[in-house]
Amino acid sequence: MDLSMRWLADYVDCKCDIKKFCDEMTLSGSKVECYGEEGDYLSNVVVGHVLDIVPHPNSDHMFICQIDVGESEPVQIVTGAQNVKKGDYVPAAKHKSTVLHEGKQVKITKGKLRGEASNGMLCSLDELGLSVHDFPYAIEDGIFILGDDCDKTVGKDIREAIGFDDKIVEFEITSNRPDCLSVTGLAREAAATFNVPVNIKEPTFKGVDGDINEIMSVEIHNPKLCPRYMAGYVKNVKIGPSPRWMRERLRASGVRPINNFVDITNYVMLEYGQPMHAFDLRYVSGAKINIRNAKAGEKITTLDGQERELSEEMLVIADAEKPVAVAGVMGGEYSGIMDDTTAVVFESACFDGASVRTTAKKLGMRTDASARFEKGLDAENPYPALMRAFELVELLGCGEVVKTYIDCDKSDKERKGVTYDPAWINGFLGTDIPEAEMTEYLTRLNFEIKEGKAYAPYYRIDIECKSDLAEEVARLYGYNKIPDTIIRGVAEAKLTRKQRFDRTVTNAMVGMGVNEITTFSFISPKYFDKIRLPENSPLRNTVVISNPLGEDTSVMRTTILPSVLEVMARNYSLRNAECCAFELGNEYLPVDGEVLPTEPERLGVGIYDTAGKIDFYTIKGMVEELLDKCGAPAYDVARPGEDSAFGEAAAFHPGRSAVIIIDGKEIAIFGELHPETLENYGIGCRAYAAKVNIPELMELCAEQKTYKPLPKFPATTRDLSLICDDELPAAVIEKTIRGAAGDILESVSLFDIYKGQQIEAGKKSISYSLTLRSHEGTLTDEQADKTMEKVLKALKEAGAELRM
Amino acid sequence: MKEQLKAIEAKAKEELSKAADLKALDDIRVKFLGKKGELTGILKQMGKLTAEERPVIGQLANTVRADIEAALTSAQSKLKSIAAAKKLEAERIDVTLPGKAPRLGKAHPLNATLAEVEEVFLGMGFDIVEGPEVETDHYCFEALNMPKHHPARDTQDTFYINENVLLRTQTSSVQIRTMEKMKPPIRIISPGRVYRSDAVDATHSPMFHQIEGLVIDKGITMADLKGTLELLLKRLYGEETQLRFRPHHFPYTEPSAEVDLMCFNCHGKGCSMCKQEGYVELLGSGMVHPKVLEGCGIDPEVYSGFAFGIGLERITMGRYSINDMRLLYENDMRFLNQF
User: Fold this and answer.
1) pLDDT digits (tens, 9 = 90+) for B123-149
2) Are B37 and B156 members of one domain?
3) What ipTM describes this predicted complex?
4) Is residue B290, in this structure, part of any structural domain at all?
5) B305 in a domain, yes or no?
6) Which residue range(s) make up the domain with B298?
7) Among residues B90, B123, B146, which one ends one of the domains?
8) Are B61 and B203 members of one domain?
9) Partner-chain contact A522 B164, CB within 8 Å
10) What is the pLDDT of residue B56?
11) A535 φ, ψ to 5°?
12) pLDDT of residue A405
């Protein structure tokens, strides 16, 4: 809401400068977004009087003017405009002035035009930042010749002379205060804020004799959606531009002046917050106004020239035959005011907010009127607005108002009070405000206090309960005067197991040199193809956003993998030599028969390094270290099978990917990405990824770690060099060693793999170091040898023999 | 023999003073004190001495041995320290060459900030509660006193899954879920992702993060709300932080307040950073609306409470002077490595 300070001054004098006005209004609840002055980009532009004008000797389209700008000597200015005459009063931009040019502020300095001195510039409306809507008598492409509605004092600042120097304050009005979408509403707020009187007079009009019921009739068919409809009639209408003061205020409020009648309805809406409509009675068939629901399939062409199809829940204003306006939203094209209109019907009505909102939304047209109605205007509103419209018609002398008017009023007149309990308010706010002071605040806001109840003025549709009154008191008392206290009582807070587990995972990843990332939860369904998901993959069954911003963000991710891949791809295209990224985030999995999806937490990891320092074992090592840190029990590493629980398996290199299995459950997948996946993402080097199912892992991990006593007796180390088929997985060998050695084996670690010379083709040499230790005593050579014999025997059965 | 012993001592000492390394010292030790050494050789002739001479010469021989040993030790330590000094000298390196640090990963700035906020609240006795991001209309709007067609819904452009299911526009939905499950006293914060249909630009994103706070108990006042936020924001922004509370409207709180932070740049005078306002809008808050309490089965005549919602992006960007929100979601390693 743009407020003209000049208009406000009609009603209230806050006795302060604009900065203080804005600060105080903000603190009492009417938030000021910004403030400024009209035409503040103009400087040193004054009213000039054309004393003489002669053709330019060196140009066939320019003129040399002698302009009196109120200085001792006239100023010579060359102009190319063709509409300037001797004796005209014009805006003259002097040497070192600023004006607008193509919407931007430019500086004007003296110079020569085809050899003749020009000490400034004569301005058009455009160069002042105005248009013919502001001065209807001016021409579009010429110098603005000041009319009689301007101050023609030579040398006067042009902004002052043409009334283009109002101060404008932009308010952000919250949806519960439609009354403040008006000058009078803000005047009341200002008066209460500064504790000064407000001067809003009841509008009056003289009128001419006549019975409106003989001219037209109104019928409300749905009083729920239209509790009150008032109609007034103006005859002998003279359509023309409205006076400068009215145009000025409309412009300051951001509304384009059109003609006197349209301007009056807009003026009243801005002043009283009540949207109005003006019909040309010629186009109201049967002179009958029906407020009814639209019929199925009914159409209307609205003022903006668009044909719109209506539906049955929409409320329309119809004549005897057809809809002429969509109630509270927009008028029909043919019912509006034309240049030859002679009889006008003013509509001032109350429509149901929710209905207007739904209709406007469905038709895709939000107007100044619908924006006000949808917040819920009181049924008292239409009366003063109609009276003000009548008053303005008479003030402008543009028609004769018929004294009688129609008032179909089916509204509920009962005013409900709210319990007024000052002690409760103080207890609620944590304040100690005396009752008399509270009462004074409420009275300032036009509340009526009666028998322990407070009655809000009609325009305050937002007051329903005790805490509403508390807010009224608090905002005039001053929020910042309320003390700051500490909540009483002691509360103990602690992290849940999940929250602690999340922190462990994050710390482990960060500790391993991986950067944490944050990606969007929604992805494109095309990403499933990019990660090579099979057509029938269950991961393609997503939670779909019905109104997405674009395809890229249209479905909720069912796998975190593409999010991580996107980040790797972006970093690769940014030529970052390496990228180590992880995200701990949710996937969103639809569940049959449930309203909401499940949102399991996943760890996604993606790493690449263009220098080739990273390989499969890097990502594997990361996953294993994470499992260790989390306290995971023993697990198996295997290639993902056809029926892997991880639908993402296809995204990985089939020979270089693995899953972690704990208790028969696949908990994580990791490995090198499939070359095709990399190609789809434009990643030009090998890259690796992992996904870990966090809640499932947490379930399997010990909540508490327990200390194992440090060994008391020395260990014996034995090395084993084996030879076996290349295909025999290291995991099988290791498992065999562990199984055969039993508890005495403390650790087994692989230290060499060799293929090539001296090794038969299809075989590999694989070497382990075994640490044996007993907790009962120092191990003898015999004991160690015995264990190694068992190990070698088992290994032989598994297909690995001691290398000779 | 006396003379012989004296001569050996003098000879040994002279050789010791000339020895250039530890090996030479050892040779000298063997030569004089070893089993076949000169001193041992002399002592072997002790048998030829008279009973009177024997103790005298024996004592002298012991003294000579001790003297040589002492001289040997001192020469040894001297040589050792010379050798050590030489080694240290030889090992001089260029200490200005770059270090070789094992690389640490970095927490995302949003989460680093969140962790700090959570710390403050845990310390104040607030539990951390999570809730679903794909949410029903009921929990996101209806139960928060925003029935269908409520005009305030316009301020939160919503992504819908269907008529009844949506992506939560605010973590306030967790308030309702918590109040339905827990009985007062309640002290929680609920951080998480929220979604609004805003195109991506420097200050908007269709997904962002909120931290919702809720306190319900007997006798909770608006002064408590102010005190709690004052404490939080001073912890986050420093003791000199100045706040401004101003009336606002949220359907689920009454009274409602927006909290502004005095601009650090101009201290309230107005500058380009705060768009001449002197303050920067920070968060929304208020006393929980009685209708919301009632809807969750909490009697507003007995209990009262407050709620607030903080935008994590706003705090994070302020802390690290990040001027474009897109950076937070692009995950450029050059950006993330800075934290």
Assistant:
1) 999 999 999 999 999 999 999 998 887
2) no
3) 0.86
4) yes
5) yes
6) 109-336
7) B90
8) no
9) no
10) 83
11) -55, -35
12) 96
Q: What secondary structure letter does DSSP report for A137?
A: T
B171 shares a domain with B68: no
CB nearest B330 (choices: A28, A484, A570)? A570
Q: Do B35 and B175 reside in the same domain of the chain?
A: no
User: Positive or negative CA dihedral for B101, B105, B108, B111?
Assistant: negative
Q: State chain B's mean pLDDT as an integer.
A: 90
Q: What H or E segment, with its residue span, contains residue A657?
A: strand A652-662
Report whether pLDDT(B42) > 80: no
Output the six-digit token pair for A490. 């002691």
- Residue in the structure block whose two tokens are 């991001």: B133
CATH of the domain at B131: 3.30.930.10
Tens digit of each residue's pLDDT (9 = 90 or more) over A33-80: 989 999 999 999 999 999 999 999 998 899 999 999 999 999 999 999
Chain A contact for B18, CB < 8 A?
A: no
Cα(A2)–Cα(A683) distance, integer angstroms: 53
Are both B64 and B121 inside the same structural domain? no
Looking at the fold, whether B64 and B133 belong to one and the same domain comes out as no
B95 falls within a domain = no
Give the global pTM. Answer: 0.85
In a domain, B98, yes or no: no
Query: Burial letters for A509-523: b for 16+ Cβ neighbours within 10 Å, e otherwise?
Result: bbebbbbbbbbbbbb
User: Nearest residue on chain B to A373, judged by CA atoms?
Assistant: B151
Say if the Cβ atoms of A511 and B104 lie within 8 Å.
yes
Compute chain A's Rg from CA coordinates.
41
Is the pLDDT reported for residue A771 higher than 90? yes
Q: Does B220 share its domain with B301?
A: yes
Contact (CB<8Å) B206/A549:
yes
User: Six-digit token pair at A501?
Assistant: 């587990």
Report the domain count for chain B. Answer: 2
Compute the residue count for chain A: 804
Q: Does B227 touch chain A (CB under 8 A)?
A: yes
B138–A contact, CB cutoff 8 A: no
Cβ within 8 Å of residue B49, ≥6 positions away: B1, B57
- Cα–Cα distance between B301 and B293 in angstroms, integer? 10
Give the model's pLDDT for residue A544: 96
Candidate from A468, A512, A553 with C-beta closest to B105? A512
User: How far, in Å, CA of A589 to CA of A600, rounded?
Assistant: 8
Based on the fold, state whether residues B9 and B37 are members of the same structural domain: yes
Domains contained in chain A, CATH given: 2-38+167-194 (3.30.56.10), 43-161 (2.40.50.140), 212-409 (3.50.40.10), 418-478 (3.30.56.10), 497-700 (3.30.930.10), 716-802 (3.30.70.380)
User: How distant is the alpha carbon of residue B251 from its chain centre?
Assistant: 39
In the prediction, which pLDDT does B298 show? 95
